[in-house]
Amino acid sequence: MDEQRETLQRIVSTLANKNDEIHNFIDMLNQTIRNVQVNSSKVIRELDEEFDALYSVLDEMKGTMANTIQQERAHKIQALHNQLSQCGSALESSEELLELAARTLNIMDPTEFSKAARQIKDRVTMASAFRISLKPSISDSMTHLMVDFSLERHALQALRFLPVPKAPEIDTAACLVADNCITVSWRMPEEDSRVDHFVLEYRKTNFDGFARVKDEQPWEVIDYIKDTEYTLSGLKFDKKYMNVRVQACNKAVAGEYSDPVTLETKAFLFNLDNTSSHLNLKVEDTYVEWEPTGGKGQEKVKGKENKGSGQYPVLKSNKRSGAPSPKRTSIGTSPTAKGSRDRFTGESYTVLGDTTIESGQHYWEVRAQKDCKSYSVGVTYKNLGKFDQLGRTNSSWCIHINNWLQSTFSAKHNNKSKTLDIPIPDRIGVYCNFDGGQLMFYNANSKELLYAFRTKFTQPLLPGFMVSIKKKYSISSTEFTLLKTNNCVLQEETWSIVFGQYFLKMFNRFHFFISIGTSAGRILHLGVSAMSVKVIKSL
């Protein structure tokens, strides 16, 4: 009976999920129908606009060319009229001379005849009838203004819809999710020289696939991308996934969108466990601060804030290491019970994360303030002793940065150290592949691999951080106020230095003894080590 009930419950759950999928698909189909109606009306309007523009150009060209023909006709007719007028004047003069010559032939007096004949000869020599051209100055041909639009007509008859660029293909292997940024890379299925630019759209979602229409977030658009790669920076990873899609555009039309790709953006979120941290560390959710006297912090190692929530370390994709998958595994973590272990003490200035890594791939980053002199970043099994330091046991791995006196950069495990001869970055990325036995440290800015541990993890891991204070103290006055020592709290008193000025070099387990007189008349011998000030003897 119970087994049948359980089976029926699974069937009901499966049917309910399938019904949700069908409802989602129906909503999507209805939305697609509405989009088809809207988009078809839009392209018809654009077609009318294009043809109206084409008609306008043809009408304008027709008017211009007709005006040219009319001007040519007027010019030719005017020139012919001018020539006709000249010919009329010449003919009138010639007829007058002809009449005069005819009368002269009737003169019988030789002297008068000779005189008249000379006058007619002179006038004929100067007559315009003999100086004008009897060839039309202008041709009646208008063939130079004829047109032949057969090629253009064929071109117009060949008008087709502009070829739509094909949908790009997103190259998931080249996509990168890291440092609150997503780099999307794509390619065209075939070469298309008419592609002018690309449009990238993205939206956040909590669904690994298609969300219901009513639950969808609006797409955010990045337009006019000339390259086939784009980096979305300054994102807030406050949703589990990011949908991205790309379309290609030519001068007039945009192509279909690429198939949407879902990239996982869920960060590995953890806080720092202040219940087991060293008492000299001031610990909050995302940072640890050295506070040896309860006063202002001297040293800080600060986890990069999650820009989505503003209070968690930003833990990013394993893509920082260049792995081919754009997704990061988000399984294999579990919170640890606070207060379940002893506080770190002695010289183990350590604080651990509150979430264990038990499987999968995870990434987070750490940023140290510029005045931080010494700190370690790494991972450890939960059995790290309260006196143990990161990298000095066989169950912890870290890189250590020491900026005191001279900068040193080293990788540590099982009390063995390897010096790293590379510049110290201001932000360090930590990539942990639990199942693959990889712990890699990166320059979070340049993505350069700093160091890699390869081992087989046999127990759950915790992020670990250690902050040390190693400073030189130059005491330049004859009195100072001591509020608190490492192992005991003293009444606030004014202390006078008996032996003047001292320069104290700090080394682990190396002590200097200074005699100090107090305003109460007591003399104390103080032992000064790298991490503490102890009252050794009171006189």
Task: Describe, in plain words, how this protein is organized in 3D.
InterPro entries: B30.2/SPRY, B30.2/SPRY_sf, Bbox_C, Butyrophylin_SPRY, ConA-like_dom_sf, COS_domain, E3_ligase_FN3/SPRY, FN3_dom. It holds the Pfam family SPRY. Keywords: Coiled coil. Residues 279-485 form the B30.2/SPRY domain. Residues 292-345 are annotated as: Disordered. The structure is a single chain. By secondary structure, the chain is an alpha+beta fold. It is 24% helix and 30% strand. It contains three helices and 31 strands. It has helices at residues 2-104, 110-126, 150-157, and strands at residues 169-170, 176-178, 181-187, 197-205, 220-225, 229-232, 241-249, 254-257, 261-264, 281-283, 287-290, 299-303, 333-335, 350-352, 355-357, 361-368, 374-381, 396-402, 408-413, 416-419, 427-433, 438-443, 449-454, 461-468, 473-475, 479-482, 493-497, 502-504, 512-518, 523-528, 533-538. The strands form seven sheets. Strands 10-11-12-16-21-22-23 form a seven-stranded antiparallel beta sheet, with no helix packed on it. A hairpin with a 2-residue loop joins β2 and β3 (181-187). α1 (2-104) runs antiparallel to α2. The longest helix is centred in the N-terminal third of the chain and has 103 residues, at 2-104. It is elongated and about 160 Å long. Residues 294-331 and 470-539 have low confidence and may be disordered.
